[in-house]
Design goal:
Helix content is about 30%, strand content about 30%. It contains seven helices and 15 strands. The strands form four sheets. A five-stranded parallel beta sheet has the order 2-1-3-4-5, sandwiched between helices. A five-stranded antiparallel beta sheet has the order 10-9-8-12-11, with no helix packed on it. The longest helix has 17 residues. The mean pLDDT is about 85.
Amino acid sequence: MDTARRPRALIADDEPLLAADLATRLQAAWPELDLVAVVHHGPAAVEAISRLAPDIAFLDIRMPGLSGLEVAQAVKVPQMVFVTAYDQYAVSAFDMAAADYLLKPVSDARLAETVQRLKTRFAQASPAPDLSALLHELLGTRKEYLKWIRASVGPDTHLVDVAEVLYFRADDKYTVVQTLDREYLIRMPLKELLPQLDPSAFWQIHRNTIVATGVIASARRELTGRVTLSLRGRPETLTVSRAFAHLFKQM
């Protein structure tokens, strides 16, 4: 890294309050640090890192769209700090590989230690360790994604194949599970459901909606910047919020 300029950092965490807290505490602990972006899901982290080329990325291990591990595989950052609440295996492995981590809730002492380590590496222009083999190992040991869902239609309970789901939509206390010809209800909230779905097969497009990527027929961008999706075999369209509109720039 070039020591003639201020170090630049990015934070990616799907919990906005925790991300904001980390940003505030980082800027207090390291005033010279230039925080160039705070994002809240994996695809946004990949886009921001590719565009802004930060020197340091603080990546939450579990995020919607892509995990922090998958972001690390997709784009390169000179120094990566992984943030986790419960992935003890990942914490131990990254520690042995000399990549830093922060365990939630992050203590002031632990954050100070991380900042000092990063300052030293920035001053010495130290390269990050090669984590490719470790990332491959960790991603290979992840649990299998959800394949079946127990859902209700009236008084009846059905076993729904996730491969048949077109989209999930939050509806009050329930989540609607929409297949090609039927609608089901489950009590699992989207935030709990999303980490159990294959990120290559399902994308969150709105805080209330997750869509199966294979059923998207087209994306229409209006003059206002609003993006709507047309689906194969269904008459309705789905609205994409601004936070996820970048997913469809190439469509």
